[in-house]
Amino acid sequence: MERSTQIQRGPNDPGLQNPGRRTLLLGSAGAMAAVSLLGFTPLARGEEPKSLPDYAAWKDRSALIVHSTNTMETHRGAIGQGVVTPSDRLFIRNNLPTPDKSIVADRDAWDVNIEGVKTPKKLTIGDLKTMGVTTVASVLQCSGNGRAFFPHGASGTQWSVGAAGCVLWTGVPLKTVVEALGGPVDGARYITSTGGEALPDGLDPKTVVVERSVPLRAMDSALLAWEMNDTALPLTHGGPLRMVVPGYYGVNNVKYVKNIAFTENQTDAKIQASGYRIRDVGQKGAPDQPSMWEMNVKSWVTAPLETAQNGRNMIYGVAFGGTKALSGVEVSTDGGKTWKSARFLGPDLGPYAWRPFVMAAELSPGEYRIVSRATDVEGNSQPEGRKDNERGYGHNGWSDHGVTVTVS
Amino acid sequence: MERSTQIQRGPNDPGLQNPGRRTLLLGSAGAMAAVSLLGFTPLARGEEPKSLPDYAAWKDRSALIVHSTNTMETHRGAIGQGVVTPSDRLFIRNNLPTPDKSIVADRDAWDVNIEGVKTPKKLTIGDLKTMGVTTVASVLQCSGNGRAFFPHGASGTQWSVGAAGCVLWTGVPLKTVVEALGGPVDGARYITSTGGEALPDGLDPKTVVVERSVPLRAMDSALLAWEMNDTALPLTHGGPLRMVVPGYYGVNNVKYVKNIAFTENQTDAKIQASGYRIRDVGQKGAPDQPSMWEMNVKSWVTAPLETAQNGRNMIYGVAFGGTKALSGVEVSTDGGKTWKSARFLGPDLGPYAWRPFVMAAELSPGEYRIVSRATDVEGNSQPEGRKDNERGYGHNGWSDHGVTVTVS
C-alpha cells in the first residue's frame, strides 16, 4: 500500500543533520564491548541498510530511519495524521536481541509468573484470556525521543521525534489478575516486570536484564497485552505478552514478560538502578535520581516539513499528555511569538492516546518556524527550552521540536 | 504478522455450507453475459484461488473468503475484536473492474467535478486538502451482507457476516466544499456521486455506471476521503478519492469519485433506479421501492465459533447502529431464551463506528446457540427473524447471525 505522506528528509531531522552523531547504544565505559556482545550493529550516517533485519522485515522500510539493527524510528513525514499508528510504521527499540520466533508458535501456552501477591501463581496467556479483557489506546514513546536535539551530544540512539506512536493494546487489566490472586502483599510499593529475553553470555545478568519497576499506582491502568492494533502482538513488539503501562515511557512496557512481582523496593537491575535516570550532564546514574516513569506533555508538527505552498496550508501534528488528557494545543508559525489554537482531528481514544491536530494557515513566500505547544488538563504546558540531562531523556521543549519551512 | 484469532471455517459459515450456492454477480436475466463482459470470475465452492488478484495482492489472503475476483469477505474468525478493521483484512466488493493503478500515481492531481451548487467547480485533491479535514470512523458494509442466510437463494454474492468492517476515513467534509461553492442549488434533494471507472464496451453505460444518489440530509456527515486507516486510500478501496457517507450501505460510498451533483431527482442509472431496492421475492427492482441508504442496527458474534472450552469463555462480537449510536448489546447462549448484557470493549469512535463487545460465560459440555442483539439509542433492536426480500438486502435478524458452539 502507498503511504499518505511523502517522506521528506532534511534539515529538520537532526539525526541526519549531524554526521558526527554518536550512535552508541549504551553510554557506559564498556559500551562498545557490550554492543558487540549483544550483536547490535550501530550505524553511521549513510550506512542505513536497504532492507530491515529479519525480525522486522514486515515493517514499511520507507517509513523508518534505521539507527541500528535494534533501533529504528518513524520518519517525521511518515507519522501521519491518524489516531493510531499503523504497526508497520511504529518505531522499534530493543534493549536485547529479539527472542527466537518459536516463542510465538503457541501463544496461549506462554506463561507469566505473578509474585508478591497473596496467592502467587504461574498463568498462561490462555488463562489470562478467560480472566478479563480491555482495549486501551496509549502512546508508546522511548525515554530518549528527542535526544538528537540536545547540544551536549547525549549518548544513545539519536532519536528525533519518531521514537513514538499511538497503539491500541488489548489484554487483561493487571488489576483483574492481581485481585484474582488475593491482591498485592502488604508493603508492596512497586510492580517489577521481567522480560523473557535470553541473556547473553559473558555479561553480569544484572547489567543486561530488562527488569523494570514502576510505582504501585500504575496498577490502575496497566494491562498484560496480547494484541496490538487488533493483531496478535508481533514478536517485534514484545509478543506474545507485554506489560503495558499506559502513559509511561517505553522502557516500562516490558516485552515477552515472564515475571511480575509486587515488591517493596525497586529492582537493582542496572536498567532500573542507574539506567533511565534524569541527572545533570556528566553525572552517573543512581537510584536517587528521578526514574523515567510517567511521560510529560508533548507535541510536534508532522506536516509540512520543508516546503509549503504559497497560500493556504494545513499544519498537522500530534500531541499527548502522558497519563493526563489534553486540554488543547496551539501552533505558531513565527517561532513562538504568536500562537493560535489548533483543532483536534478524529475521535478521542482516551487520556493515554495521542491526538492528531490541524490548523489552517495562510503562508506567503518566506521562511517560517512552525512550532506547537500542548497543554494537559492539569494546566501543564510544554516548556520552550530543554532540560539538559546526561542521557537526553524526556525532552518536551517546543522550540527544538519545531520545523523550518520555506514558501517560495 | 500473525493474526490474533485462529480462523475457523465450518458449519457456521453458510457460504461454505451450501455447495449449490449461486455465485452470480448480477441478478438480472443477462447476468452471465454481463459477468463475462466485465471480466469477473464467479467461483464455485472449493475453487478459491491460493493467491489474490493483483489489485488486492497486499491483502491478508488467510483472512478472506474469495467469492470472485471482485468480491471477498472477511472470515468471521478474522474480524477480530478491534475498534478498527486492519485494512488488509477488510472485505472487497467492486461493481466494476478496478481502474488502472496509474490513477494513484499523482494523487493530488485527481479531480472531482462539483455540480448543482451555486458555483460549480472542478477541484483537485490538492485543492480539497487545503479546504478542510476531518477523520471519521464508520462501518463499511455491503447491502447484501448476510445474504447467505436467506433460504430463497437470493442472487448475488453469498456474503455471510464478513462484508463489513470499521474504517477510519480522513478527508474533507462535503459540507465544507459545498459551502465554499455557494451551497446547493435551490430544489436540490439528492447528492449524486459518479465513480471514475472506465465503462466496458458493449453495454449501455446506464446499466453499469456506478452512480448513486443519497438524500441531501447525508451532507451533514459525508466526506470526500483520501485516507483510510491513516494510509493513502488504496486503489483497492476507491483511492485516490472516495465519497464516504457514514452510516450508509457500502454502495453509496462511491469509489474513484469523479463527479458529485446536487440534483432534484435520483439518477436513473440502473444501480440506483432498480438496483439496491428492497422488494418482495420475485419482484423486479423499481424506483418506488426503498433504496439501500441508512444501515439498520446489527451485531454478530465473532468468537468462539465452533468449539469452546469447558469452563469460562469470553464471547466476542461487533455491533453498530448505522447512523445512530448504540445503547447496548445483549448476548444469549441458549438461542435467545435468556439474555445478558455484554460490555463494550475499547474506545468509542463515535456513532458511525462499530463497537466490539465481550461477555464472559461459564459453559459446561454441550451445544450452545450463541446469538447477540444490539439496540440503538432510539430504541431500535435487531429483530429475531428475516425480512425476506428478492436480493437479500439489509438482513439484521439476530437468529440467523448466531453461531452454534460445542463444548466437550
TrEMBL record, chains A, B:
Q: Where is this region: Disordered?
A: 374-408
Question: What InterPro entries does its record include?
Answer: Ig_E-set (IPR014756), MoCF_OxRdtse_dimer (IPR005066), Mopterin_OxRdtase_euk (IPR008335), OxRdtase_Mopterin-bd_dom (IPR000572), OxRdtase_Mopterin-bd_sf (IPR036374), TAT_signal (IPR006311)
In what residue span(s) does the Moybdenum cofactor oxidoreductase dimerisation domain sit? 291-399
Q: Which GO terms describe its biological process?
A: sulfur compound metabolic process
Per UniProt, what is one GO molecular function of this protein?
heme binding
User: Locations of Basic and acidic residues compositional bias?
Assistant: 384-393
Q: Which UniProt keywords apply?
A: Metal-binding, Molybdenum, Oxidoreductase
Fetch the Gene3D superfamilies from UniProt.
Answer: 2.60.40.650, Oxidoreductase, molybdopterin-binding domain
**Per the record, a Pfam family?**
Mo-co_dimer
Domain of life according to the entry = Bacteria
CDD domains assigned to the protein according to its UniProt record, in alphabetical order: SO_family_Moco_dimer
Occurrences of domain Oxidoreductase molybdopterin-binding (ranges): 105-268
For the keyword Magnesium, the answer is no
Cofactor(s) needed, names only, are: Mo-molybdopterin
Task: Spell out the protein name for this chain.
Answer: Sulfite oxidase protein
Per the UniProt record, the source organism is Marinobacter santoriniensis NKSG1
